[in-house]
Design goal:
Blueprint: E1 8-11, E2 14-21, E3 25-31, E4 39-45, H1 46-52, E5 57-59, H2 61-71
Antiparallel strand pairs: 1-2, 1-5, 2-3, 3-4
């Protein structure tokens, strides 16, 4: 699986959204609630980020939109 800017990953109750993707680093936003889109920005190496999302599920755009509606 290739990482792309704008992807949203779900692990448990947390969501990881890739804000900026560079060659060796990833800036991502850790979100608890998709409706408010509020979260904390973090920066990690690609290797660290891949370890974070190891058991996570990549969400499609439709799943993200549905999750926003369901949590509202």
């Amino acid at each position: 699986m290739k990482l792309c800017q704008g992807q949203t990953w779900k692990r448990g109750d947390c969501y990881f959204r890739i804000a900026r993707l560079e060659r060796l680093s990833v800036e991502y936003k850790l979100i608890d609630n998709l409706t408010t889109k509020e979260g904390v920005h973090h920066k990690a190496t690609k290797k660290e980020f891949c370890r974070l999302i190891k058991n996570a599920v990549l969400m499609t755009a439709d799943e993200v939109a549905e999750a926003r509606l369901n949590t509202a």
